[in-house]
Amino acid sequence: MESNAKEQLVYPSTPLNVIEEFFPGENTYVDEEKGFIRASIVGKPKWDNAARLVKVVSTRKRKYIIPRENSIVVGVVQNIRTDFLLATIIGLYDNKKIIPTGPFAGVLHISQVSQEYVRSLYDLFAIGDVILAKTMNNYNPYHLSTKAPGLGVILSSCGYCGHVLLFQDGRLYCPRCKSSFNRLISKNYYNVILQKR
Question: What domains appear along the chain, each with residue ranges and CATH number?
Answer without folding.
Answer: 2-58 (2.40.50.100), 72-181 (2.40.50.140)
